[in-house]
Design a protein that fits this description.
heterodimer, A: globular, disordered N terminus, B: about 375 residues, alpha+beta, Immunoglobulin-like, Cytochrome Bc1 Complex, Chain D, domain 2, 3 domains, 5-stranded mixed β-sheet, 16 strands
C-alpha cells in the first residue's frame, strides 16, 4: 500500500490555504487531532522540565554552588517540579493516549463532549502560558509543593502567576476526567460490556474519578494561598492568625491522589503491552481492573503520610501509615498478574515490550521503597532527603515515563500509520533504562546517608553520589532525545504500518492506520472479551517462526 | 534546650541561658529534649546520624528528644525547604562527655538576658548547685531569668503564686489538665502555655476573666522560652492536678462610692462615670498592679489626682486628667519614679468613653 492509497484519515485535510490548515487543527473537535495537539505541547513541556532538571544536575556535580546562585537553583528545581508534575505527568498519558484511544477502544465515534475536549486543551495551554510567563519573568522559588507560610508570606517570586497556571491547568484535568467518565459510561459499542473493556480504559476511568474529586481541593488550596498573599487574610501564616499545616493537609489531599493520576494510566498502558507482546490473555483481568479502582479509593486516605514529621499526632501518623500499607496490595496484585501473564506467553522483545518490562522492574523498586517511606520510624529519617527524591522518580520516571514511551511506541503506528526503526527503538529503551538507574539509584544511597533534598550546596562526602547521578542523567537525557529523532524521521521514511502491525487484539487495531476521521465505518459489535488471543498462540508462533518475522 | 529556627540559622538556648548558633552541644548518655519553634517559615531539624527529624513550625512548639551515645561531631541539617539559603541552614551537633559539657556551659559566651538582649562574654551561673545543669528546676538560670521576666513584666501581679490573684496561680499548671471557661479541658503543654501568654483569651481558665493583655508581638521568642522555663520549673509535673486549684471568684465590687464630692483633695468628678470606671478598673485587671496598699507593681492611685508626681526622668508633672489619660493609653511615655515601664499599652484597646470612665474613677479616689 503506497502513501497515496491510504484512505482519507484524520491527519489528511481538505484545507486549501495554510490559514485554513492551521484552523483545522486549532479548532478541531476530533479527539485524535486533540490528542496530537496534546502530544506536541506535552512533549514541549517535558523538554522544558528536562532542561531545568539538567541544569540542577549539572549544578550538583560540585558541592559548592558554583554554576548558579542559590536563588537561581531554587527557581530551577521549582520549575522542574511544577512543569513535570502539572504539565507533563498529570496530563501525559490520559490527555495524549487516553484522548486518542478511549473512543477507539470502546468503539465510539468520539468522546462524549468534543468541544469540552478542545476547551481542556486550551485550558492546559492557558495554564502553561501562565507558568511560562512566571518562569521567564523571574521564576518561582517555592518548590512545586508551595508550602506555606513560605509561599504565602515570605517568597518574593512569581508565586501567584505560577499558582494561577496550576489552577487553570486543574480545570483542564477535571474536564478531561469528566469527558472520559461520561464516554465510558454512555458510548461503549454494542457488546462492549464493562468486563470486556481493555484494562487501559479501566485505568483511565479510575484516573478520571480522582481527577474530578481531588483536583478541586488543590484549586481551593492554591486560591487560598493567593488570597493570603494578596490581601493578607490570615489563613496559613501564623503571624496573621492562620495555620501553616492546614495548607499541607489541603495540598496533599489532592497531591497524593495526583500521584495515582500519574501512575494509574501508566499501569493501564502496561497491561495492554504485556498482553499484546506475550500474545496471551491477561492473567486476572478482574483483579487488575478492580485494583485500579482500589488504588484510586485508597489514594484519598493516605495524604497524612507526607506529614509524619510535620507535628501531626503520632496516632494519626500510625493510621495513615497503616492505610499506606494497604495501597501495596492492589499495586502488588497488578505486578503479580503481569508477571503471570508473561508465563508461557509468546514473548517478543519489541521496543514497547522493553519499556514494559523496564516498567515492572523499576516500579517494584519504586513501590517497595514507598513502603519504607510508609513506615513512620523509617520515614522520620529519610523523609525530605534524596531517598524520597529517588523513590518518586522511580515511580514517576521509571513508572510513568517508561509507560508513556512504551505506549507511544506501541500506538505510534496507529497514530501515524508508520513504523519507526526497531533497532534504534531497542537501543533507546536500553539507554533510558541504564541512564535512569544510574541517575536515581545513587540517590537512594545518599538519601539514606542523610543528604537533604533541595540543597544547593552540600557536604563534600556526598559528591561521589551526585557525580554518578549527573552522569546517569546525561545518559538518560540522550535516551530521551534518540526517540524524538527516529520517531520524527519515521513520519517521512518509516515503513507503512498497516492496520495491525503487532497482530494485537482490540478495536483500535481493527481499523486503518491512521484511523479515519469518523473512526469506524460501521459501529462495531463486540462479541468477545479483551485480549482474546488464541490459547495456543505460543505454539503457533513458534511453529510459524522464521527469521525476519515481525514478532 | 530551646531551639529557634529562622531563615537561615539555628539558635539554641541552653538551660543556663547560654546561646549558640548553628551548633548544638549535648552531653553523652543524657536524654536531651528540644523545644523548638520558628520565627518565620517551616524548617525541619534533622540529625541524620541520630535518625531523627522534626519539622519546626512558626507559631507553635514542636519537640524532639534523643540520647547521644557516642562523642563526636554530627551533621545538623534543615530538611524542610525554607528559601534562598536553605542549604546553608546547617550546623554541627557536638556530643561531649558530661564534664566537658558542664565546662562548656560555664565558659563565658553569648547569653540571653531576661530582657531578651544577648550579652557576649557572659555566663549565668546557677547560684544554688554546682552540679551539671540539666533539665528545668527552679534554680536554673534560665528559669530564674524567666522568673525575673515574670516579675518585671508584671505577670506576678495577677498570677499570684499562692492563689487568689486576678489570674490563676501558675504553680503546678504545666503538665496538668486545665478546665477552661467553656467547660472543655486542655493539657497545659508547651503550646498551651505559649498560646496563653501570647493571646490569653483563646483559652480562658474557668473562673477567670479574659483581662490579660495580649503579648503577641511584644515579647521575643527567647523571652517566651524563658517564661516557659520558669512556668515549667514551678510545676512538679505528672500525677493529677492539685486538689485545690484556686478559683478566684469575680471580685465583688465594693458598693459604688456614691460619696459626695470630696472636700478638697482632688476635684469634682462624675459619680456615674466613676462607678463604671471602677468596674472597668477591676475587670481589666488594673487593680492587680495599682493596689491600694501601695505595694503593687504600679503606683497607688488614691489621692493621685491633681497632685505633683515625680517621674522617672527626674521631672515632675501635675496628675491632671490629660496626664491620667495619656498614662492609661501609653504608660511608657511618662513613667512614675521608682516604677518600671511594664504596663501594657491600651492605645487602641479602650474606647474613648472607657478611658473617660477610668479617669473619673481615679479622680474619685480620695484619701
Amino acid at each position: 500500500m503506497s502513501t497515496s492509497a491510504i484512505p482519507q484519515n484524520y491527519t489528511s485535510t481538505r484545507a486549501d490555504s495554510a490559514t485554513e490548515w492551521i484552523k483545522s487543527w486549532l479548532l478541531t473537535v476530533d479527539h485524535k487531532r486533540i490528542a496530537i495537539l496534546y502530544l506536541l505541547s506535552i512533549n514541549f513541556f517535558f523538554l522544558l522540565g528536562g532542561l531545568a532538571a539538567s541544569l540542577v544536575r549539572v549544578e550538583l556535580v560540585t558541592p559548592q554552588g558554583d554554576l548558579m546562585t542559590a536563588d537561581m537553583y531554587n527557581r530551577m528545581f521549582t520549575l522542574h517540579g511544577v512543569i513535570m508534575v502539572f504539565f507533563f505527568l498529570i496530563p501525559a498519558i490520559p490527555a495524549v493516549m487516553g484522548n486518542f484511544l478511549v473512543p477507539l477502544m470502546i468503539g465510539a465515534r468520539d468522546l462524549a463532549f468534543p468541544r469540552l475536549n478542545l476547551l481542556s486543551w486550551y485550558l492546559y495551554m492557558g495554564g502553561g502560558v501562565f507558568a511560562l510567563v512566571a518562569a521567564i519573568t523571574g521564576g518561582v522559588d517555592t518548590g512545586w509543593t508551595f508550602y506555606t507560610p513560605f509561599s504565602s508570606s515570605y517568597s518574593n517570586s512569581n508565586v501567584i502567576l505560577t499558582m494561577s497556571g496550576a489552577f487553570i491547568m486543574g480545570f483542564s484535568s477535571i474536564l478531561t476526567g469528566l469527558n472520559f467518565i461520561v464516554t465510558i459510561h454512555k458510548m461503549r459499542a454494542p457488546g462492549m460490556t464493562w468486563f470486556r473493556l481493555p484494562l487501559f480504559i479501566w485505568a483511565n476511568y479510575a484516573t478520571s474519578l480522582i481527577q474530578i474529586l481531588a483536583t478541586p481541593v488543590l484549586g481551593i488550596a492554591l486560591l487560598l494561598v493567593m488570597v493570603e498573599r494578596v490581601w493578607r487574610v490570615g489563613i496559613f501564616d501564623p503571624a496573621l492568625g492562620g495555620d501553616p499545616l492546614l495548607f499541607q493537609h489541603l495540598f496533599w489531599f489532592y497531591s497524593h491522589p495526583a500521584v495515582y493520576i500519574m501512575i494509574l494510566p501508566a499501569m493501564g498502558v502496561i497491561s495492554e503491552l504485556i498482553s499484546a507482546f506475550s500474545r496471551k490473555r491477561i492473567f486476572g483481568y478482574e483483579f487488575i481492573a478492580f485494583s485500579s479502582i482500589a488504588i484510586a479509593v485508597l489514594g484519598f486516605l493516605v495524604w497524612g503520610h507526607h506529614m509524619f514529621v510535620s507535628s501531626q499526632s503520632v496516632y494519626s501518623g500510625l493510621v495513615f501509615s497503616f492505610i499506606t500499607m494497604l495501597v501495596a496490595i492492589p499495586s502488588a496484585i497488578k505486578v503479580f498478574n503481569w508477571t503471570a501473564t508473561l508465563y508461557k506467553g509468546s514473548i517478543s522483545y519489541r521496543t514497547p515490550m522493553l519499556y514494559a518490562l523496564g516498567f515492572i522492574g523499576l516500579f517494584i523498586i519504586g513501590g517497595l521503597t514507598g513502603i519504607f517511606l510508609g513506615v513512620v520510624a523509617v520515614d522520620i529519617h529519610v523523609t525530605d532527603t534524596y531517598f524520597v527524591v529517588a523513590h518518586f522518580h522511580y515511580v514517576m520516571v521509571g513508572g510513568t515515563i517508561m509507560a508513556y514511551l512504551g505506549g507511544i511506541h506501541y500506538w505510534w503506528p496507529k497514530m501515524t500509520g508508520r513504523m519507526y526503526n526497531e533497532a534504534w527503538g531497542a537501543i533507546s529503551a536500553l539507554v533510558v533504562f541504564v541512564g535512569f538507574n544510574m541517575t536515581f539509584f545513587p540517590q537512594f544511597v545518599m538519601g539514606y546517608l542523610g543528604m537533604p533534598r533541595r540543597y544547593h550546596v552540600y557536604p563534600e562526602e556526598f559528591q561521589i553520589y551526585h557525580v554518578l547521578s549527573t552522569a546517569g542523567a546525561s545518559i538518560l537525557g540522550l535516551g530521551f532525545i534518540i526517540p524524538i529523532i527516529y520517531l520524527t524521521l519515521s513520519l517521512f521514511v518509516g515503513k507503512v504500518a498497516g492496520p495491525n502491525p503487532w497482530a494485537a487484539t482490540g478495536l483500535e487495531w481493527s481499523i486503518a492506520s491512521p484511523p479515519p476521521t469518523h473512526n469506524f465505518d460501521q459501529t462495531p459489535v463486540v462479541t468477545e472479551e479483551a485480549y482474546a488471543y488464541p490459547e495456543d498462540a505460543a505454539a503457533q508462533d513458534s511453529d510459524s517462526w522464521q527469521a525476519g518475522s515481525h514478532l | 534546650m530551646y531551639v529557634i529556627g529562622k531563615q537561615w540559622m539555628w539558635h539554641v538556648q541552653h538551660a543556663n541561658g547560654k546561646r549558640e548558633n548553628n551548633e548544638l552541644h549535648v552531653p553523652i548518655g543524657q536524654p536531651v529534649r528540644l523545644i523548638m519553634t520558628s520565627q518565620d517559615v517551616i524548617h525541619s531539624f534533622y540529625i541524620p546520624a541520630f535518625r531523627i527529624k522534626q519539622d519546626v513550625l512558626p507559631g507553635r512548639y514542636t519537640s524532639l528528644w534523643f540520647e547521644a551515645t557516642k562523642p563526636g561531631e554530627y551533621h545538623l541539617f534543615c530538611a524542610e525547604y525554607c528559601g534562598t539559603e536553605h542549604s546553608l541552614m546547617i550546623g554541627t551537633v557536638i556530643v561531649m562527655s558530661l564534664n566537658e559539657y558542664q565546662a562548656w556551659l560555664t565558659t563565658p559566651g553569648d547569653v540571653i538576658m531576661p530582657d531578651g538582649s544577648i550579652q557576649a562574654g557572659q555566663v549565668l551561673l546557677n547560684p544554688n548547685t554546682s552540679g551539671p545543669q540539666l533539665g528545668p528546676s527552679l534554680s536554673d538560670p534560665m528559669a530564674v531569668a524567666g522568673e525575673q521576666l515574670f516579675t518585671s513584666l508584671g505577670c506576678a501581679g495577677c498570677h499570684v503564686e499562692a492563689g487568689g490573684g486576678t489570674g490563676p496561680s501558675l504553680r503546678n499548671v504545666f503538665g496538668y489538665t486545665q478546665t477552661l471557661a467553656d467547660g472543655s479541658t486542655v493539657l497545659a503543654d508547651e503550646n498551651y502555655i505559649r498560646t496563653s501568654i501570647l493571646t490569653s483569651m483563646k483559652q480562658i481558665v474557668q473562673g477567670y476573666q479574659p483581662v490579660m493583655p495580649v503579648y503577641e508581638g511584644q515579647i521575643s521568642d527567647d523571652q517566651l522560652n524563658q517564661l516557659l522555663a520558669y512556668i515549667v520549673s514551678i510545676s512538679n509535673r505528672g500525677g493529677n492536678a492539685p486538689a485545690s486549684v484556686p478559683v478566684a471568684e469575680p471580685q465583688p465590687s465594693p458598693a459604688p462610692t456614691s460619696v459626695p464630692a470630696p472636700p478638697s483633695a482632688g476635684g469634682p468628678f462624675d459619680a456615674d462615670l466613676a462607678t463604671k470606671g471602677e468596674q472597668l478598673f477591676n475587670n481589666l485587671g488594673c487593680v492587680a498592679c495599682h493596689q491600694d496598699s501601695g505595694l503593687g507593681l504600679g503606683p497607688r492611685l488614691r489621692g493621685l489626682y491633681n497632685r505633683q508626681v515625680a517621674l522617672a526622668d527626674g521631672s515632675s508633672i501635675t496628675a491632671d486628667a490629660a496626664y491620667l489619660q495619656e498614662s492609661i493609653l501609653n504608660s511608657a511615655a511618662k513613667v512614675v519614679k521608682d516604677y518600671n515601664p511594664i504596663m501594657p499599652v491600651y492605645q487602641g484597646q479602650l474606647k474613648d468613653d472607657e478611658v473617660r470612665q477610668l479617669v473619673e474613677y481615679i479622680k474619685s479616689l480620695t484619701e
